[in-house]
Specification:
It contains two helices and twelve strands, in the order αββββββββββββα. By secondary structure, it is α+β, with helices and mostly antiparallel strands. It has a single domain, classed as Galactose-binding domain-like (Jelly Rolls, Sandwich), CATH 2.60.120.260. Helix 1 packs across helix 2. It is globular, with a radius of gyration of 25 Å. About 9% of the residues have low confidence. The protein binds calcium ion (2 copies). The site of one calcium ion has 11 residues, from strand 4.
């Protein structure tokens, strides 16, 4: 009897595990939106590009008074964009004065996460010699108020810092949210009240470039095991046990 009970529990557990695995199979991580900034169609000119995402939908804008167009992503070690020659990056310059407007200037992306969860942001960033050495990632759940998140990216002179990843899966407020947004903004050097140039001297005409800005997410589960589903899963297990019992008889 003890053995039968153990078998029964094992079969029920197996049935439940199978059900959960099947249900989770529909929620693989995927690229929700991505910007590579490259011209469509290609025009062999990295100084031209587009702010329309190459995957998904969303908007990007320069914030905090910054200006700029597009620039190559193939120098300084290059971004992770596999494109060559016509590989554009979003260029930004005209940053704040040396001791002004901490964490306000840079770029802002808006991407609806309706129907999505486990949001993750990845981007490549290039730092010119006189740009701010420190960039701060921020997220917003209302599209207006931004919260610092994660470690600052620390730049190297005229070099791409690639695959900067910020995993927002613990921030449930950005799930299933039409107002999700994030920023990458220039930050004062740690424990100071001013910007530090990536190469030592800071200047407002220093520039940052961005490429391969990517938002990954999972489709929100529409069939997670809930209390309402559990009787069904247990039923699957019992049915399997009965079949096994008949086969043994
Ligand atoms: Ca182009
Ligand atoms: Ca590019």
């Amino acid at each position: 009897m003890a053995l039968r009970l153990t078998n029964k529990v094992a079969v029920i557990a197996a049935g439940a595990a199978l059900g959960i695995a099947v249900l989770q199979g529909s929620a693989q991580a995927a690229t929700l939106t991505q910007w590579n900034f490259n011209s469509v169609p290609p025009d062999a000119n990295p100084a031209t590009g587009t702010v329309i995402p190459n995957i998904g939908t969303g908007t990007v804008s320069r914030v905090g008074g910054t200006t700029g167009t597009f620039a190559t992503a193939d120098d300084g070690g290059s971004s992770t964009d596999p494109a060559l020659g016509d590989d554009s990056a979003l260029n930004t310059t005209t940053y704040p004065a040396a001791t002004a407007l901490n964490k306000t200037a840079g770029v802002e992306f808006k991407v609806s996460t309706v129907g999505q969860q486990n949001v993750q942001v990845i981007f490549d960033q290039y730092f010119s010699a006189t740009s701010s050495k420190y960039s701060q990632f921020q997220y917003s759940s209302d599209g207006a108020n931004f919260v610092d998140f994660g470690s600052q990216v620390v730049g190297s002179v005229n070099t791409w810092s690639n695959n900067n990843m910020f995993n927002l899966s613990s921030i449930t407020g950005v799930n299933n949210n039409a107002n999700f947004a994030f920023r990458i903004v220039s930050a004062f050097a740690p424990s100071t009240t001013g910007y530090e140039g990536t190469g030592g001297t800071y200047a407002t005409d220093g520039s940052w470039r961005f490429d391969m800005a990517t938002v990954n997410a999972n489709a929100s589960p529409t069939a997670v095991p809930t209390p309402a589903l559990l009787p069904g899963l247990i039923g699957m297990g019992i049915a399997a046990w009965r079949k096994r019992k008949v086969a043994q008889a």
